[in-house]
Amino acid sequence: MPLPDPAGRLLAALLAGAAGVLCFAPFDLFWLAPLPWLALFALLRRAPTPRQAAWTGFLFGLGFFVAGVSWIFVSLSVFGGMPWWLAGPATLLFCAAMALYPALAGWTFKRWQPAGFWRQALFYAALIAAVDWLRSWIFTGFPWLAIGYTQAPPSPLAGFAPLIGVFGLSLLVALSGATLLRWRLGLPLLAALVAIGFGLRQIEWTTAEGEPVSVALIQGNIPQDMKFRPESFIRTLTLYRDLIAANPAQLTLLPETALPAFIDHLPVDYLDELKTLASRQGGDLILGTLTGVPGGTYFNSAVSLGSSPSQVYSKSHLVPFGEFIPAGFAWFMAQANIPLSAFSAGPEQQTPLAVSGRHVAVNICYEDVFGDEIIRALPQAGILANLSNTAWFGRSLAQPQHLQIARMRAAETGRPMLRATNTGMTAIIDARGNLVAALPAFETGVLRGEVRAHTGSTPFGQAGNPLFLGLLAISLLLACRLGRKKA
Fold it and tell me: InterPro entries per the record (predicted)?
């Protein structure tokens, strides 16, 4: 195969990166996932210098992130009120910053490219997984679209999730893609991984305990541009009260900031009424609201009301620019109209909420992207619950992508996940990561069902990412005989 010219190689990288988004929700072409990273591997091997390899990785990443997280523009411009001429470049700049991670992988691969095809494939896969992991914590982290999410259930490779988590799956996908460059080697490896993953899917890592708990997950579908308007406040309170009253359950969940006011400022008789409604079956309600002091220290919180003593969980991993303003960027946020963008972070370690006779680990919106943080509540928590408001992102890829992330968290931990969202996607996910039921997006409704708490731990739930990091280290040791010989 002739060596493509530099422009052709860079264009191919850009298109391959954009195509990689098809492997994620809502397209769910998980079986296609090795191919975009096969294309990147082939292009990097043919790059003549580390600099050219870095540009190849950068263009791949740029295509990938522009196609996959363009909903950031929606949040900044459509709902954040930022002028399009500033929101557009800001979104592109963010995607370019994220593209630096595959650029780093490309440069490193070419700089120390080992001899031999198998060593090259291992080295490449380890680097791709490593930059996925680095992206999860540098500058507070943005692990959205980590490659391993493509293998959330129903992919048979999801069987590896309870062992090595999403970043371990990133390594397996990248390795599968690289080895497919020589299909006589790659196809048997991929078949073996699928078979092993399918076998691992048959293992019950955790055990259901106690009787099922009836749940009602409420999707208010409050338009984002109306959510914080004073004239909509009473209508919002009435809507949620009526939906709760019409759907009795032992555990009721409302979305993130469902009641868009500080809880101490809500009418006392209204809160008493919610508590009475929640207590009808000896149950409890968890609602998203604000706690703290207006103009002072305040939190994005979940508060429980009902038969159990009232408890509070406050979001600990905040979203840059959406929930706090990084140093030096006040001028940038002044161009937008994002209310309550200076939250304080709650404690990293918080006790699961004891509600409805179960321990529920609440996380709010973006927090469930961080698997190593979700397991802090284990093994005490038997149920995971996510309260979200993705109305900020409109009718985009964000909502199905977020649901896919939640399914991975359930598969990693062996815990069911309940999702109550404002506009979608409200869902019940079982302890194996399978989608049990979901409401249509952008409709007002209540998802009713039953869930059982689970006990026990998966290997990932016990150790988190150190298992993946050990696998990463082994891959690098097997791959690396430092040198620059090109095969």
Answer: Apolipo_AcylTrfase, C-N_Hydrolase, C-N_Hydrolase_sf, LNT_N
Looking at the fold, whether 151 and 255 belong to one and the same domain comes out as no
* Vertex 12 angle, CA 191 and 168, to 5°: 40
Using CA atoms, how far residue 486 sits from 41, 43, 48, 124, 364, in Å, is 13, 13, 10, 13, 47
CA separation (Å) from 359 to 211, 251, 430?
14, 11, 16
Position 395 scores a pLDDT of: 87
For the ranges 1-15, 118-132, 457-471, which has the lowest average pLDDT? 1-15
Which of 23, 110, 227, 315 is the catalytic position? 315
Reply yes or no on whether the pLDDT at 484 is more than 60.
Answer: no
Q: What is the pLDDT of residue 482?
A: 47
Both 175 and 211 in one domain: the answer is no
Is 486 one of the annotated active-site residues of the chain? no
Give tens-digit pLDDT for 144-180.
Answer: 999 999 999 999 999 999 999 999 999 999 999 999 9
315 catalytic? Reply is: yes
Domain count along the chain: 2
The range of the structural domain enclosing residue 34 comes to: 6-203+465-479
Q: Around 80, how many Cα atoms within 13 Å sit in the side-chain half-sphere?
A: 29
Q: Which of 110, 365, 367, 412 is catalytic?
A: 365
Supply the pTM of this predicted model: 0.94
Distance of alpha carbon 400 from alpha carbon 149, whole angstroms:
12
CATH of the domain at 234: 3.60.110.10
Instruction: Please check whether residues 172 and 237 belong to one and the same domain.
Output: no
User: Does position 446 have pLDDT exceeding 80, yes or no?
Assistant: yes
Cβ(284)–Cβ(306) below 8 Å? yes
Cα torsion through 449, 382, 368, 313, rounded to 10:
100
* Burial state string for 197-206 with b = 16 or more CB within 10 A and e = fewer than 16: beebbeeebb
Q: Cα–Cα distance between 400 and 160 in angstroms, integer?
A: 22
Q: In what order do the strands lie in the sheet with 213-219?
A: 312-314, 298-306, 284-292, 251-253, 213-219, 445-451
pLDDT band at residue 397 using 50, 70 and 90 as cut-offs: very high
Catalytic residue among 95, 256, 323, 367: 256
- Could you read off the pLDDT of 213-256 as tens digits, one per residue? 999 999 999 987 666 677 788 999 999 999 999 999 999 999 99
